[in-house]
Specification:
By secondary structure, the chain is mainly alpha-helical. 70% of the residues lie in helices and 10% in strands. It is built from eight helices and three strands; from the N terminus they run αααααααββαβ. Strands 1-2-3 form a three-stranded mixed β-sheet, covered by helices on one side. The longest helix has 36 residues. 42% of the residues are buried.
Length: 298
Amino acid sequence: MDDLIENPEDASAEKQSAAKKSTLVSVAVNLTLTVSQVFAGLLSGSQGLIADGIHSLTDLIADFVVLFANHHSAKDADEDHHYGHQRYETAASLFLGISLLVVALGMLWSAGHKIVNPIAPSQISILALYVALGSLVAKELLFRYMLAVAKRVRSSMLVANAWHARSDAASSLVVSVGIVGALLGFPILDSVGALIVGLMIIRTGWSFSWDALNDLMDRAVSEEEHQHIEKIILSTEGVLGCHDLRTRKMGDMILVDVHIEVDANATVQVGHDIALTAANQVKAELPVLNVMTHIDPI
């Protein structure tokens, strides 16, 4: 009872293509920033800029994780994975969330170290500020681009990677403020800003990690989506009622189990057609991978 009204392969192919394109753009940006930030940091004497370059390098690693997950999640169902490989994306989201936590903890540790051992204001040149501001603009634009793509194709993995870029933009902002503070003789501003941004990134990383972990444990869809699915089923001609409606996440897709009530005098063929129509209508309106129906005579 899982025939489709429309083939989801086109939508899946579009999603994979968009994810690959946006991630390759991120790879190019992060590679350029890593080289320029580290090089400029060495020339200008800015340890913060060098650290920001290393942060960009961690984004590069995250990009390759996304490319790996995007490639494998698009594989068709096989003997070992009857529902496909969409949970590669959930696993990647979990990795990205944890990496955000690690980056944030690193920022907090670095900020604490700088408070105890502040740098001398004369050690940093104006070149560091120009590069840091350029990195901030580049990362913010990258974040907005990647988030727009992620929302268009409805990919939680790409949303997580976009926010990974935003964390790097926040890092560049902290570095910029720290450089300005150092140039003005107040290097402590770098540490205070890093503490604030580090706490913000921890909150974001925890949110993504917790959401991904719950999805891996077969979390149900939201109450709003649950009611939407129920409404579609009940509006199907021939359906007299439904019960035991259960859902679980499979990557960015949904698996549905439901008992559908039909006229007890209907033939097996009629009951089958009613359930099939209900399932297809659900798949047509929502990102549902499969609807398992059980027919109850009323």
